[in-house]
Design brief:
Largest interface: A-B, 77 and 77 residues
CATH architecture of chain A: Up-down Bundle
Strand content of chain A: under 5%
CATH topology of chain A: Formate dehydrogenase/DMSO reductase fold
Helix content of chain B: 40-55%
Number of helices of chain A: 16
Distance between the termini of chain A: 27 Å
Largest sheet of chain B: 4 strands, antiparallel
Oligomer: heterodimer
Distance between the termini of chain B: 125 Å
Shape of chain A: globular
Strand content of chain B: 5-15%
Strand order of the largest sheet of chain B: 2-3-1-4
Structural class of chain B: alpha+beta
Number of strands of chain B: 6
Number of strands of chain A: 0
Order of helices and strands of chain B: EHEHHHEHEHHEEHHHHHHH
CATH class of chain A: Mainly Alpha
Radius of gyration of chain A: 24 Å
Largest sheet of chain A: none
CATH superfamily of chain A: Formate dehydrogenase/DMSO reductase domain
Number of domains of chain B: 2
Radius of gyration of chain B: 45 Å
Helix content of chain A: 55-70%
């Protein structure tokens, strides 16, 4: 049996690759590893420190939101000519980060990249938390937040419908669909693991709570069959969805006529950037998390290295997009377009532009070195640079184009206010608070999926000609 | 009465690895069983073949939901933006595939995803928080590292002894019986009462909406969220303690000239010269004035007085057809009494109305009112002309008359 199982494994993966899971090789050990994190009476001290910092930032966020609503959007720095400021910069930044989770869980699943199983749960959770941070901005920026529901089509006393041909409405649909589908996808994957937690829980309270959300899962083969089919279909739906979401976000700019925005390259360029920033965030968060919770055997250096390769690839794509934009601005012969790009690189926001170039184009190139690619703390350094760079990318695109448009008498210089800054810091706090709570109360690694990629999970294949097939 | 043993539900065998549970599943399948199931902590690949399971119809549900999403989204966008409230923006087509695709796509994905998730739950009959299998404490291994095979007693080939032997031949662990639960699976009465109560309360808003929809309101509509019409502000004539004179409405600053109120002459404004109506039009009359008067007359006066001023406008005709008892027919402007009126009085009639004729002063400006007066005068002359009115040079062209 063992011999044929190995043969099969070799057939599937012709090149000798590092193992997906190190150390723990039987099912019980995997359960123990992952659930052990949640079951130990007290989390590590670093967890408390992290939660203290991030939850105070979250408190700051709520304070800022209340202040904004009570006072009005004037407390932000947005004003003529830059009517879009940090609000939209941060919105796009967070939505972009969200994309890595779906990419890892859906696209890599369709591509049968088994290494995803150890990181997909945490990455999907990050998707949800990043979407929370992103979704906050459109909701609070409307001024009269209590009528934000006017964005949705519903029969109202004004007898009017929203304009379905507007990119901003597409955005509403894209982001809310994305949030819903990723929540479903994440929750569905979680159900079998919640059942594991339910069956291991020692207190009645835990049993009831985990049991409620486990929906009575009992691992029936008939259930698994439909579950796997549903999972595959959701992955197949989420893949075009994730590509569409950032394309639609880019339409907010590309469909307008502002120079520097009105380009057809935007959708693919935004999608590459989103994947780039999202993977960087996954690396930034996963390296400390695996260290802290002792998950090094499940989230191995190989996983991290693979993600770094994706960062290198998408980072180079983003660099290519930057140069293409410049080429087209010159080759297109449109003086306004040319001006917009010269202004980006050498105008009043040149400092932001060159930070962006350094962080997004130069920094990821370090990943050509295997040493940097495989040493956890060095890669976190690069990943943080990438996060900074991707924030600046959105800032450069949005602010430089708006601050200097067609009418020179209307030019200005955008400055954020302290409320802008505190709100952004607050969303970072919210993101990490949710993530830390997730680490403590939910399985950070998809237990059932990891068991499925262990060598012992592959049955001795039934003789192809024996018995009747498909009843 | 002897207490009856709860019915046998199934026989459950426990295994430690994938191979033995798969082998047992094949044996059970080959023995012709239909109602049996394998339980495992992760999906075992190929188990559906070992068990002889048919492919699930979930993909069809997802396809159906997806197509529903596409159709609904396309139809709704067309209906809302092109039909119910045509929304013209930048002269772009009201409905066009490219601009309506993003939302169609998102909605398709949304409904298809609902189909996949909820379809999976419905086909699996989940959530099912209580199942007899959970009564067996060893069954907890099914979500950890154990594998189970349960053959149900309702299967036609089930025979407690022989089925047990068959299962036992594959398993190292003892085969156990699973009995129907004796506990009632219904929610306690107070939970059901609370749910029913909440359900009834949830219907109230809808009842309110239906009620409001089909009854005439006597008070103005109540808006939870006020629109801009009802923002805090001072109305004309209201008091405002902020100013020394206590009035919210501020008088013109001394010496200010309003740029759209040049008319100050009382004759022009009232049509009166002291006590009497004035006999001449106080403003210059030109071709332009006559044309303007004709056009305004057509807008404001013809519905009642008719194109030619005989009091036979559409409103008057309709009232005559309906034989409205209280209807006072509009005066003919060619009535000798009316013809004898001074222009000032006709002006006054327009501005302030007369007896049953309503006043038009609020709709028609001063200049326009005088233009109409000029036109009425012309109309009157046209209907009561004599040969003397025609210039001598043109009289010959009148022909036979």
């Amino acid at each position: 049996m063992t011999a044929s199982a190995t043969t099969q494994a070799h057939l599937e993966e012709p090149y000798a690759r590092p193992k997906l899971v190190e150390g723990a090789e039987d099912f019980g050990a995997v359960t123990q590893r992952v659930c052990g994190v949640l079951e130990r009476p007290k989390p590590p001290r670093a967890w408390y420190i992290g939660l203290a910092i991030s939850s105070s930032l979250t408190l700051l966020l709520f304070t800022m939101v209340v202040y904004l609503i009570a006072t009005g959007v004037g407390v932000w720095g947005n004003n003529s000519p830059a009517f879009w400021g940090w609000g939209i910069v941060n919105f796009v930044f967070w939505v972009g980060i969200a994309h890595a989770g779906t990419l890892i869980s859906a696209i890599l699943f369709l591509l049968r990249q088994k290494w995803r199983t150890s990181i997909n749960r945490a990455a999907e959770a990050m998707t949800l938390f990043a979407v929370c941070c992103a979704g906050l901005y459109p909701a609070i920026h409307v001024g009269r937040i209590w009528v934000a529901y006017w964005l949705f089509p519903f029969p109202n006393q004004m007898q009017m419908w929203p304009n379905f041909r507007s990119p901003l409405l597409w955005d509403v649909f894209a982001v809310s669909t994305y949030a819903t589908v990723s929540a479903l996808f994440w929750f569905m994957g979680l159900v079998p693991d919640l059942a594991t937690l339910r069956d291991r829980s020692t207190t009645r309270l835990k049993q009831v709570i985990y049991g409620f959300f486990a929906l009575g899962w009992r691992g029936s083969a008939r259930h698994w069959q439909r579950f796997e089919r549903a999972y595959l279909l959701l992955a197949a739906l989420a893949t075009p969805l994730v590509l569409s979401v950032h394309s639609v976000v880019s339409f907010d700019f590309a469909v307008s006529q502002v120079s520097g925005w009105h380009t057809t390259i935007f959708p693919p360029y935004f999608v590459a950037g989103a994947i780039f920033s999202g993977f960087a965030m996954v690396v930034t968060v996963m390296v400390p998390a695996r260290e802290l919770f002792g998950l090094k055997e499940l989230v191995t250096i190989r996983h991290l290295e693979n993600m770094n390769k994706v960062i290198l690839a998408t980072g180079s794509m983003v660099g290519l997009a930057y140069s293409t934009e410049f080429f087209i601005a010159w080759y297109g012969g449109n003086p306004y377009e040319r001006f917009a790009f010269m202004n980006r690189a050498f105008g009043p926001y040149a400092w932001a532009y060159w930070i962006m170039i350094f962080c997004n184009v130069v920094a990821p190139q370090f990943f050509w070195s295997k040493k940097i690619r495989t040493s956890p703390w060095l890669m976190v350094g690069v990943a943080i640079l990438v996060n900074v760079g991707m924030w600046f990318e959105r800032f450069v695109i949005i602010v430089t184009s708006l601050a200097r448009t067609y009418l020179p008498s209307n030019w200005g210089y955008f400055k954020p206010t302290w409320v802008d800054i505190c709100t952004f810091a607050g969303t970072i706090g919210l993101f990490f608070t949710l993530f830390l709570l997730f680490c403590r109360f939910l399985p950070m690694v998809a237990i059932a999926e990891v068991k499925g990629v262990l060598p012992a999970a592959h049955a001795h294949p039934e003789h192809p000609k024996g018995g009747h097939d498909h009843g | 009465m002897a207490e009856s043993q709860p019915a046998l539900q199934s026989l459950v065998a426990e295994f430690d690895d994938v191979d033995s549970v798969s082998a047992a599943a094949r044996a059970v399948r080959d023995a012709g069983f239909q109602h049996f199931d394998v339980y495992s902590p992760f999906p075992i690949h190929g188990i559906e073949r070992s068990m002889g399971l048919r492919a699930t119809r979930l993909p069809w549900i997802v396809l159906g939901m997806g197509l529903t999403g596409t159709t609904l989204a396309l139809f709704f966008q067309w209906w809302a933006n092109a039909h119910d409230y045509p929304f013209k923006i930048s002269a772009k087509p009201l409905f066009g595939i490219p601009a309506n695709i993003p939302i169609t796509f998102e909605f398709t994905v949304l409904l298809a995803a609902f189909g996949a998730f909820f379809g999976m739950l419905v086909l699996n009959r989940l959530p099912e928080h209580h199942n007899e299998l959970f009564d067996n404490p060893r069954f907890r291994r099914a979500t950890d590292d154990g594998f189970f095979l349960a053959v149900e007693a309702r299967d036609a080939r089930f025979d407690t002894r022989r089925t047990r032997e068959l299962l036992q031949s594959f398993s190292k662990h003892p085969v156990v019986e699973c009995h129907a639960s004796t506990e009632s699976r219904a929610f306690p009465i107070w939970v059901r009462a609370a749910l029913a109560g909440a359900g009834a309360l949830a219907l109230l808003p809808f009842a309110g909406i239906v009620n409001a929809r089909f009854r005439d309101a006597t008070s103005p509509a109540f808006h939870l969220i006020k629109d801009m019409d009802s923002q805090p502000r001072y109305r004309a004539q209201a008091a405002n303690p902020y100013f020394a004179d206590g009035r919210a409405q501020r008088p013109d600053v001394a010496g200010a000239v309003a740029f759209d109120h040049f008319l100050t002459d009382p004759k022009t404004l009232t049509g009166r010269d002291g006590e009497n109506f004035c006999g001449t039009i106080p403003l210059p009359v030109s071709d332009q004035t006559m044309l303007r008067g004709q056009q305004r007359f057509a807008v404001y006066c013809t519905p009642c007085h008719g194109q030619a001023g005989y009091g036979d406008g559409l409103v008057a005709q309709r009232a005559a057809n309906l034989q409205e008892p209280n209807w006072v027919p509009p005066a003919s402007l060619h009535d000798p009494v009316v013809r004898a009126r001074a222009v000032g009085q006709i002006f006054d009639t327009i501005r302030n109305g007369v007896r049953t004729m309503p006043a038009y002063g609020r709709q028609i400006g001063i200049e326009d009112s005088w233009a109409i007066v000029a036109y009425v005068r012309a109309l009157q002359r046209s209907q009561n002309a004599t040969v003397e009115d025609v210039p001598p040079a043109e009289r010959a062209s009148l022909g036979t008359r």
